[in-house]
C-alpha cells in the first residue's frame, strides 16, 4: 500500500485513524490524500478514514483498497502481512485449452466452510480428473453467509474463509497437486451492505444494473475507478499467484469508450504472464452470445481466453428435464442441441422468443477454438437461481445425470463441473445471505418470493435467504450412498476417457454433429458419442467397439441400440 494514501476527490477534508490515533491528511491535485506527517504502514496496524463532506464528519470507514478486513466490511482495515513463504516456484501454470474446471462455493463446499476445507478435498478433485478450481467470489461482503456477489472491497479476502493468508495457502496447496486456481470476481456493481466507497469518490455513475449502481467506467474521474479494478485484478495474479479470473456478467460493464475495460484487463494479464512465465487467463460471463469476447485483439475482439456458454446448457437441460419456461422457451429438441454442440450458440443472430428480438452473432468456427467456450450441465446460477435451489441431481435419475455429463465431457469445449454434481448431490444450493441490516434482509427475501410466486411457486416453499438454515442445508454432504458412488465412478471414467482419447482437441471443425428425433451423435473421427434423449430405446446407424456406457447398449458392427436416456462412446 502507498503509505496510507487514499483517493478521495469527493472529500472536503479527510483524517486517517491508525490504532486510535488521528492523523491529518493533505490532498494533492489528483484527488489523492496522504498523511501530512509521513507514516509507514506496519503489518497488523488497524486503520480507517474519517471523511468530511458538506460540513460534517462521517466514519471512520475502511480503505477502499483494503487488503484485509478482520472485522468485516464495517470494521477498520488492517495492514496485511504479505510475508508468505511460497512453495510453488516450479508451477508453470495452465492455459485454458485442455482444462477441466470445478466451480465451488467456499462456504458450502466443506464442513468447515473455509479455504482449509477446500484444501482437505483437493485429493478428491485430482482423483476425479479436475485440473482447475474456480472459487465463487471471496471478496468481503456483509455478514458471514453470502454467495459472494455482494462484495464491496475488491482488493480484500473475506475473513470468514481464512483471509488473505488462507487464500495463499489454498493456492499453494492446489499448485502442489497440479491444480490451477481461478477466482470469480465482480466488477459490474458493488454490494448493498458496507459499501462506503461513494464517500470517497465517484465509484458509481448512476443507473442500475439490476443488482446495484452502474460502476463508473467511462464518466468523469473514471480513470481512477478503472485503475481500482485493474489493480485489484493484478493483485490476485501477482500477490496471490492466482491463475485466472472469471469475470461476472461483463455485459453490465457500461464502457462505451474506445478502449474497453475487458481489453485493458487482458493487456494486464498478458503483461503478468510475460513477466512471470506463468499463464494468466480471463474467462467472461456474458448473456450476449458475442464471440468478440474471445476473438483476437488483432481482429477487433478483446482477446480473452474464454467465455461461459449458456446455450449448450439450456439445450441439454431442457431436453433431459422437459422444462421449457422463461429463457428455456426456444430450447428442448435434439435439433437445437445438435446446433449448439456444432455451432456454440443457438441464438447467433436468430430470433429469441424470450427476449422478443434477434440475439447473438455467429462464431467463426475456423478461427475460434472450441476451448474458448466453457460448457456445463449446471452452474451456481442454474441451481441457485431456482426458487428452492434444487439441483438437477435432485430431480433426475442417475442415467439422465450421467447422460448430461457424457454429452459435455465428450465435446471439444472446456468443461466445468459445479460442486457436488460429480456424485449426484441431493443437497440444494439455495440463494442465501446474511446482510447486517435487517431491513435489507427483509427486502431481499420479499423480492425472491415476489419473483417466484409469479411463476406459480407457493411462497411457503421458497427458502428465506437470511435464515441460517438455508445456508446449512446448502452444504455438501460427503457421505455417499452406493448410487452416488456409481455416479462418481462414471464421472471419473468419462474424464479419464476424455484425456485418453484426446477429446479435448479444441478445433470446432474436427467434429460432425448429426441428430434424429430422439438422438444426437458427435463424430470426433476415430471416436463417436451418441446419446438417446428419450424414454424409449432408439437404434442409430453407428457401430464399432464400445468404449464406455453407463447403461447397457447393444453395439454392433454398423448399428447401436441405446437404452432410454443411455449413451455409448464408440471406437470405429
Automatic annotation (TrEMBL):
UniProt KW keywords: Carbohydrate metabolism, Cytoplasm, Glycosidase, Hydrolase
Question: SUPFAM superfamilies from the entry?
Answer: (Trans)glycosidases, E set domains
EC number(s): the record gives 3.2.1.141
Principal subcellular localization = cytoplasm
> Pfam families given for it?
Alpha-amylase, CBM_48, DUF3459
Catalysed reactions, as listed in the record: hydrolysis of (1->4)-alpha-D-glucosidic linkage in 4-alpha-D-[(1->4)-alpha-D-glucanosyl]n trehalose to yield trehalose and (1->4)-alpha-D-glucan
CDD domains the UniProt entry points to: AmyAc_GTHase, E_set_MTHase_like_N
- Give start and end of each Glycosyl hydrolase family 13 catalytic domain: 103-454
Q: Which residues cross the membrane?
A: none
Subcellular location per UniProt equals: Cytoplasm
Gene3D superfamilies per UniProt: E-set domains of sugar-utilizing enzymes, Glycosidases, Immunoglobulins
Query: Looking at the record, which segments are called Disordered?
Result: 60-90
List the pathway annotation: Glycan biosynthesis; trehalose biosynthesis
Q: NCBIfam families, alphabetically? A: trehalose_TreZ (TIGR02402)
Similarity comment: Belongs to the glycosyl hydrolase 13 family.
The protein depicted here goes by the name Malto-oligosyltrehalose trehalohydrolase
Species of provenance: Corynebacterium pygosceleis
